[in-house]
Amino acid sequence: MSEADTTQAAGPVELRGPEIAAQPPAARSRILSVLAWRVAIVIVGLALWEFSSGRLIKPFWISSPSEIWSRLGEWIATGQLWLHVEVTLTETVLGFAFGAVSGVMVGLALGLNRRLAAVLDPFIVAFYSLPKIALAPLFILWFGVGLTSKVVLATFVVFFLVFYNTYAGVLAVEAELVDVLRLMGARRNQIIRKVILPSALIWIFTGMKSSVPYALIGAVVGEMMASNKGLGYLIEAAAGQYDTAGVFAALFVLMIIATGLHELLKQSERLMLRWREEGHG
After folding, report:
1. Which of 64, 125, 169, 180 is the most exposed, having the fewest neighbouring CB atoms within 10 Å of its CB?
2. Threshold 0.90, pTM exceeds
């Protein structure tokens, strides 16, 4: 898909440390230039935000980077932040894991069985069309206000993103490759392991990377609706106290978590698909 192409095209920009040093001078200069621009954008943006707060816009509406940093410091000092981060991270990781595994399995099963896919297609489309966030109250009624309801919501959101990408990846496998292995006497499980699964990996990782923010959203929305722990609860509590700095501080932590999980998946993809780079090389 297009995101996969973007990932491949942007690969050199994401090199770090020794990998940057190993690049040719022109490529290394380009990488450092991109990093410098990113840092400059962050610095200028924070400076303009700090300057505007209290001068151009009331701090009540946008707070300020210094106030947000101060609030984060308070939460870290009291240990309050780590408790909420642990809860949200647990819900997100569990929901992502369950959703990704089930999405890959169902996507492979339906991709390999076109008749079953044709039978189940309208049901899958019907469930996929449901607003996922609207299901949060129902899951809370079914599974309570604890961890389970948030994990189920995150799982439900992730499942469809990974499923559709896996299903599309299986359908995109070149029929000629499958025919060649059949002529060589390969069994069905060998064809799946040697051709279908490796060819669909790029699609699977694309679905996983795009689903990470949604797993986090599912967990946080569930916490905002009914919970006494988690970053979603922290945002809701800060908003209820008109604490703009607290809301921005919790959002900042959520961005760090999402970026970290996304980067972890990209590194995993690079390791799993190293054979593609070696083949092109």
Report:
1. 125
2. no
